[in-house]
Specification:
The structure is a homodimer. The first copy, chain A, has about 400 residues and is of the alpha+beta class. Chain A is about 25% helix and about 25% strand. In chain A, strands 1, 2, 4, 5, 14 and 15 form a six-stranded antiparallel β-sheet that branches. At the A-B interface, β3, α4, α5, α6 and β9 of A face β3, α4, α5, α6 and β9 of B.
């Protein structure tokens, strides 16, 4: 991490851990019925995951600090019920009995029409099969719910712990041969494999989530407090333009069309601005993350949180599917890095630095991370921090993990 | 088209037209202010587009027939106000005056904070720029709104015209050097260029649109009529399973997790089934299209239409960006084709048939379409229509356009 000097305490926070997930004790029920399998040794049953995460705080470091201390514990907690299921190669059970009775659901009892005592016809097909659910999707579900529990904990403890602000969260979990990369916010992860760039996340901003946000605003107009319109306009409309035709788009549209300006269109657009300057409700530039429970529109009583999602998008990379060389890495970075250094430049630095060290030098990955951060910060000149190309360096905290595959 | 014999009148309908878009007369205002430009000749001002579309009807052919007769006219209507703007290389105007007064908006008046007489700070960045809107995105907006107007017309005229059912709509519009491919439903378009497959659409089904549908159901539970739950389960839950733990996912999740089964979970899931058998509200397998205004859940008063979207996704292919050979084509097909013949097989047939004709034989593209349809139908044997690999042929109407690029 490099602190940009915006705040005394880093707004970027990070965590790197090896976590042991101990199977939850289960005196009876599904687990005991399988106890004779002998797959696991007599000690404490469980599994390990490796964990790296970056938290880019805003409006204070409180949420970022707490998330960096706890998110992996929430992931561990969500995985505790899955230890035996994940280690069993057979498909995960759809239903777990809560007591000793055996699971005897009739898989043929499944049609809406049957329930209603009607004769089946073409419009109501009979569906007999169970949907297959993979082990991988259980891990994804566990990570998704862990983010939700983390957000709930920040909400509960924000008063007593004096937690200010919110944070983006980007986490990489290595479990049973696969990397799970979970992202909520505008940090980014890429894999560089044999010089090729494989995106492992996408950014969640007012622009990328426009249609979700506009849809919510349309269905729950009371959340806009009469100050905002759910329509997007390319610029603010002035009262004297009433009756003219203006370009707009709504929650259904990706293109633009003209509409006659009405009174309601004079409100401020829910989504406004472009690129790094895009804001939701004129306030925030990221639309997923943790915290922000008290965030309101400037000098108003309109809450932002209902529009924010704490759920990450999780992408999976199966390490066993590819051959990897010592120069193949997973790079995690906050927007302080990516705002000034693009994927290709990062891949260039990775290859340049790694090839300048012996393949078995344990420091080479650390040196890449350091080089990425230093280059993105730039050098202090008379006209501020400047990059090698004389453009302005990142004015933001910069954090990077470089993880060999 | 091959009629599968499910209905006397084809449920698949098609249209292929060259359409002239005549500029809307505008005696005063923005258009007259530019009249001296002399870009256009003295005759009727306008532009042409080429148009191909497939409409796959369900529960009757009425909506499909009407859409095949009218959708291109709605697209034409939406484009009429854009004729001059699209032909002008300068960026489209953000605002059009409705009278002779000139556009004099102050681009610096745009900040939420300024409006509220507050001092600016970090949280409320000042945004001064207009968003750039491309010509292309105006065409996309015009097509999107044309689909909406088409759907509205079906709603208005369904009683007097005896229009039954609904339809998927897939349209390819060639305008000013670009193909715009608009899809609402489960038809599909691909480009085959130099043997490479370029997807030009994606399907909209209960599975691909699950999160949008669950989000709507969560925010508007009254639309579910107490019969459905917005949660997804891998199979139907039985009353005696109350209290057990079942896999589920909600509108935020892509993975699965276990939850304790409660009373409310015994309702039928909004989204149920897998692949071609996935249904929304146990009724319909496509979630975008035209019509279906009267569609209800079997033997209930629950309307399906609020969950359906009539808006297409529009993808753009710029013909001027690539070199094309006479074997490069755009293929449009209804699901009757794609259910039994995948992208790669279609590309194989295209190449096989095209190379068996002289490059300048005008029939060669028609022969490809015919071959695709006939192969997907199969041959009538004792055990029904069979494909070359002895699998069952498509039991659905099959329609294909093969369009040289």
């Amino acid at each position: 991490v490099i602190n940009a000097g915006k705040s005394q305490h880093n707004e970027d926070q990070a965590c790197c851990e090896v976590v042991f997930v101990e199977q939850r004790p289960s005196p009876r029920g599904w687990l005991s019925s399988r106890e004779g399998s002998g797959e696991l040794d007599g000690g404490r049953k469980g599994l390990y995951f490796h964990y790296w995460a970056l938290f880019d705080g805003h409006a204070g470091s409180g949420a970022a600090v707490m998330a960096s201390e706890r998110l992996h514990l929430h992931i561990c907690e969500q995985l505790r019920d899955l230890v035996e299921i994940l280690q069993d190669p057979s498909p995960p059970p759809i239903c777990l009995p809560h007591n000793t009775e055996t699971d005897s659901a009739d898989p043929n009892h499944m049609s809406y029409a049957e329930d209603h005592g009607e004769v089946l016809n073409d419009a109501v097909p009979q569906i007999h099969l169970e949907k297959a659910v993979s082990h991988e999707s259980l891990v994804i579900g566990a990570i998704e719910n862990a983010f939700k529990h983390m957000d709930d904990q920040i909400e509960r403890e924000r008063a007593s712990q004096h937690l200010a602000g919110g944070c983006c969260a980007l986490a990489a979990i290595y479990l049973m041969g696969k990397f799970y990369v979970a992202n909520a916010g505008d940090s980014r992860a890429i894999i560089i494999r044999n010089g090729e760039i494989i995106p492992m996340s996408r950014e969640f901003t007012p622009e990328t989530e426009r249609q979700r946000l506009q849809f919510l605003a349309l269905l729950r107009p009371e959340l806009l407090g009469k100050e905002f319109t759910h329509l997007e306009f390319p610029r603010r409309i002035q009262p004297k333009e009433l009756g003219k035709k203006m370009l707009y788009r709504d929650q259904n549209m990706n293109g633009w069309a003209y509409k006659k300006i009405e009174e309601d269109d004079l409100k401020f657009p829910l989504i406004f601005g472009e690129g790094k300057k895009a804001r939701m409700m004129a306030t925030i530039g990221v639309t997923r993350g943790l915290g922000d429970h008290d965030l309101k529109v400037f000098s108003s009583n309109i809450h932002i949180k209902p529009f924010l999602s704490c759920f990450p998008e999780v992408r999976v990379y199966d390490l066993t599917q590819y051959e990897h060389c010592p120069d193949d890495v997973l790079v995690l970075g906050t927007d302080g890095l990516w705002d000034v250094t693009n994927d290709k430049e990062v891949a260039g630095v990775v290859m340049e630095v790694l090839t300048s060290y012996e393949p078995n030098d344990p420091c080479r990955y650390t040196m890449v991370a350091q080089e990425l951060v230093v280059r993105s910060r730039g050098v202090l000149k008379e006209r501020g921090w400047r990059l090698a190309n004389d453009k302005l360096g990142s004015g933001d905290d910069i954090s990077v993990f470089v993880i060999p595959l």
